[in-house]
Amino acid sequence: MSRPQLRDARRDQRSPARPHTSGRQHHHGAIERPRGRAGLGLALGLGLVLFFVGIRVFAPEALGDLLSNTVQDFFTLSISVIIESLPFVFLGILLSIGVQVWLPDGFLLRHLPKNAVVRRVTLSLLGVLLPVCECGNVPLTRGLILRGLTVGESMTFLLAAPILNPVTIITTYQAFGWSDGILVSRILGGFVIANLIGWIYSRHPSPMSLLTPKFQASCAHAHDEVPASRSRRSVDMFAKETAAMMPALFVGSAIAGLIQVTVSRDVLLTLGQNPILSVFALMALAFVVAICSNVDAFFILAFGSTFMPGAIVAFLVFGPMIDVKMLALMRTTFTAKTLVQVTVVVGLASAALGLAVNTLA
Amino acid sequence: MSSDELLPAEPGAGSGARGTSAFARRLAGSIAVLALAVGWLAFANIAQGPRLNDAQLDVQRTTVLAGQKLTLEVNQSVASLDEAGIVIEPEAAVTAEIDDRTITLTFDAPLAHATDYTVRVPGVVGAVQPTPATLEYEFTTPGTDLYTLIRRSDRGEPDVVQRKPLDGGEPETVFEAPRIQEFAHSGDLLLAVTIEDDGSNLLFVTDMRQGEPQQFGIPRGASIRDLAVSTTNPLAALVLSSPEIDGVRDFDRELIAIDLSTNGGMELLPVLGLDGEKSHVSSWMFVPGTTSVVVQDFEQSVFVVDVIAKQQPSPLGVHTELRGFVPGTTQLIVADPDRGVRFDLADGSSTTLELASADIADHVYPGPITMLDGRSRYLISLVAATVEGDRNVRSSVLAEVDDDGELREVFAPADEASLIREYCVSPNAQFVAVAQSPQAGTVDGYRENPGFTEMMTTVVEIATGRTVMSAVGGFSEWCSD
């Protein structure tokens, strides 16, 4: 049976199963709670801003001296990562909203090639049009699965888009230029690894078994959306994306600052100069730091003179695909077994890429 | 309905046990291939030695200053290297230092112009990769032009400053005026002092990329002498005197530096004496590679002062004459009636200059000497005077005297009717510009910076005596550095 027929059949089967009534009731109930939470969140946010402004205005200058140098360094380094990241995160969110809300429904799917390989290649380059952080790609990927993409294809998009998008490419170029082939290795590495994963899972005989039961259930409610204007949806999506991004950004920045003030520079230097250990050390760092792909190049730039270029490439390729935050987000969609398999393949491929760069660069 | 019917499968994906087996093979095969690649690449990384990541060298300064550093950035900490095995082609002496990932090679002397150098550092052992490696780096030093002044006012033609590349090529006129007293050039800027009909001077600055000379503001009727530029910094300086007006003289043989940098805006920087007051300057010169000048006042006090930093001058004592610097170094040679002294301005030390005396005949008279290195190798011009019949015959030669006092001819005028009038060594001591003119030539009549008519400058490579180029005119720019 051809693919369009399968999609049509699925829609036909799904339509009668949609529990419109209960779904709408659920949503109507949910509308009130977010508004209440939004009000509370807004009040909390304003309160925090006023609190910090109050500290800045009324606290004596000498108060800062009470903090140890290490604590001051921690705040300085963490805040610097946030300040560097924020413009790009917001840019990513705005572009994501434009593509998700303002493009016609099904526009992308209608224009994808029919050949499986070309289709995956095209999807891996779709990040050029959907330039969001990896955490923003997870809900987008879920939506693409619901609209008819195979699991392999959706994984290709999910893994490639955080790297093969203009914001990430521009920030990587800003940070490293053309030096040591870091930018080129990142782009090619992200492309090849994402397509490798897509190619592997294109062979899976039972793609539904790769997904969590909960996500399968949620498919039934995929189209239960509250009628709203595009502007309203844009605002809602902005709030949602910001709420998803900011905690990750703040936590990632704090961990980045913490690592820089607590991990001995000698340890970093020792690891960074080892052509093998440096690769695995930065992959581990990428996994823990879980920083957005739009800004990770600026983060790792601080280690640019310490670590070998292959390690930086491994960081920039592995981090956007697999990290603590991404695994948590992907676990909402994929089974643990699937994630372990993907992590092993992406990890080995990233390590091979990093080691190859260290061998040649 | 099975759950899988909800999702499309890829074309070609199998179903059931056969499909599962194919997927498992593809997954396991991919993992195996990647694991093998990781293992092989890890081995390859260990097996290869340290590699050169980057290198930094200011090639422009290598030809004018000793002590220039070639920094080799290695991809890991360097544990050791074979310093005795370091090879520079063409030969140049270096000292090596290791600092973590950086190997710094310091050139003992300035390098030759327009030369392809190859640096090989063998036996480099990394802290992580134990395999010794040889690092290799190549660079090319820049060529240079020679600027000369051609005085033609005695023939009713304007004087010109010409530029001619050492590697051949046609001369190019870069400045022209009815009478030119002296000139100097820094990068693309040419500074020229012209002589007005009343004998006073004007100063012109020409950006040689644009060509239009701009008159530099100095007091009306002022006189200038000893214009020179730094070979490494955008700085010029001159000794300025202005006429007395209503009993007041604004400038009286004062040394004035000019900041030629883009940001400097041609700012005038008065150079004060030891007491912090204006001083009457007898002679002066730039300290190579710095923004400092060494000054001798009319009381013969010698001091060093930084014209930019405005620090307190450092006195060097009272000496009869400033002889110049060992090329490319901060070693200053001064002369006293009883001895010569070498000051190393880098550390403030001084030593008596002990030069090997050359064995020359009684009828040969020694002229000025110029030090070529930090030991005792020097150039000397010699004039032989003999009587043939009823006439005196003079001939001149430029010779090098080595550490043992051995004399070697570097240059002698091809035409026996010519005499060496002046010679000046290039900042890297590779070449000497020899100005010669016919014995029958006359002085050109310029009150300040006088020369001879029909002067010709020949550039000779000191090591080989090879004539590199010849140009009309004299007053090579190397004489004003």
Automatic annotation (TrEMBL), chain A:
It is a multi-pass membrane protein. Belongs to the UPF0718 family. The keyword Thylakoid does not apply. The chain crosses the membrane at residues 38-59, 79-103, 123-145, 157-176, 183-201, 243-263, 275-291, 297-318, 339-357. Residues 1-32 are annotated as: Disordered. Residues 1-15 have a biased composition (Basic and acidic residues). The keyword rRNA processing does not apply. This is Permease. One of its GO terms (cellular component) is plasma membrane.
TrEMBL record, chain B:
InterPro entries: SbsA_Ig. It comes from Agromyces fucosus. Residues 68-141 form the SbsA Ig-like domain. Keywords: Signal. The keyword Signal applies. This is SbsA Ig-like domain-containing protein. It comes from the Bacteria.
